[in-house]
Amino acid sequence: MNVTNSQSVPDTRRLSWQGPLPTYREVPPLREPISSTHSSPVTSRRRLATMHDQTIYWIWLNEMRGITLREKRKLLSSLSSPQNIYHASPSTIIDILETKQGRAGSVAESKRESYGSLWSSRNLANAEAILANNEQHSIHLLSPDHQRYQPIYAADTKAPLVLYYKGRLSPPETPVIGVIGSRASTSYGNLVTKAAVATLVEKGNTVASGLSFGIDALAHQTTLENHGITYAFIPCGLHKAQPASHTELMEQIADTGAVITPYAYGKEALPFRFIGRNDVLATWCDTLLVVEARKRSGSMHTARSALKKGKRVLAVPNSLLEPKSSGTNLLLTEGAKAYYDDQLQFGGCYSSIPTSHPDEEDVIGVLNENPLTTSEIVDMVPDLSLSVMECLTDMELSGKIVFRSDGRWHLVGGL
Questions:
Q1: How far is CA 228 from CA 201, 209, 252, 410, in A?
Q2: Looking at the domain assignment, is residue 285 inside a domain?
Q3: 367 and 339 in one domain?
Q4: Are residue 132 and residue 185 in the same domain, yes or no?
Q5: Which of 42, 252, 332, 393 lies 20 to 30 angstroms, CA to CA, from 72?
Q6: Cα 204 from Cα 379, distance rounded (Å)
Q7: Mean pLDDT in each 10-residue stretch from start to end of the chain (415 residues)?
Q8: Where do the record's region annotations for Disordered lie (predicted)?
């Protein structure tokens, strides 16, 4: 949906602090760029602060270094808004952090001096520059006082104070399903991704992924091909795509969906920012589907982050001998549920399972020779009219085949 200038009062019971919250306002474009030739820094600061109320203060607090996210949340709990934090005295800040830690007087002298220095030298210059870039490049901002971000932020104590996005967001009631996986995906992984995403789009879900090579890009592309809505979560500012070769794909996503990041315009994709991106993706999704992943991969980090947040995580099982599925197979022992086909795994959002598949004879034919992995079946029977996983699941439920501990499908009664 397009973000609106809603004046409704957010439900503060869902937040980690109490007290009145400022009302979010959509950032309007400036009539002219900010520069010293048009106005003084003081005039610009006052004009921006007046125009955008809390927005510039959220950016300032989010970008402040030398203070942890946990400490920022403690300050918000006591002072209710980033503007109040900005205008608070250094002594007030120190007192709040000492009290909230439950150890009055426990803040070391060096820490007290650090806090004092931070607040004595605070200014809005960096926040102004970020806000100006947002306006110039049609970048929107979500903060904890925004009704769209409020429940997401409240549910995760490590969620960033600010998210930036280009494009438009789906209505809050629309389920968001993450689809992620290996950058070097297999034919099996590609087949599962296309089938799952096509059905997700058909049933009105928003599909989210990380814009990376392989499964991520395929999830976005398949969504667009089926005229669906997709979100891309990136590990850098909105000045570029990551990877750069996906610039056109990123623009296509923003045309109908959204590109979302916790990082301000101009921030580059450093290693730790991939981790931050993964956590935001995990928080935003209602369900996360991991198609293929090695044991040590970004997809595994995202999946484990989602599990810690209590999200529903589905992993596509595969042969124990397939290294690109070593992580997804491991997830099945860590709390993820096995994904066998889209109708079974996403509940009431999907149509009922067909009673039979005309492709069963082809599958039985190849399994008559030897038990096979799912990938091997995909390679040997490439022209199935329905997805391989649909066919295999239906045959398993009817007792014709079984998936055994060797990672292969066996005909019932066979060795």
A1: 5, 13, 12, 37
A2: yes
A3: no
A4: no
A5: 42
A6: 31
A7: 38 34 34 36 46 82 90 91 91 78 53 71 89 94 88 84 95 91 90 92 94 95 96 96 94 96 94 93 93 91 91 88 88 87 44 49 83 84 68 73 76 58
A8: 1-46
| Same-domain check for residues 190 and 144 | no
Closest CA to 314 of 178, 173, 156, 188: 178
For 123, the domain range is 12-161
Question: What's the pLDDT score for residue 143?
Answer: 92
Q: Which of 132, 161, 190 is the last residue of a domain?
A: 161
Q: b/e for 205-215, b at 16 or more Cβ within 10 A? A: bbbbbbbbebb
What pLDDT is recorded for position 52?
57
Joined together, the tokens standing for residue 189 give 């992984």
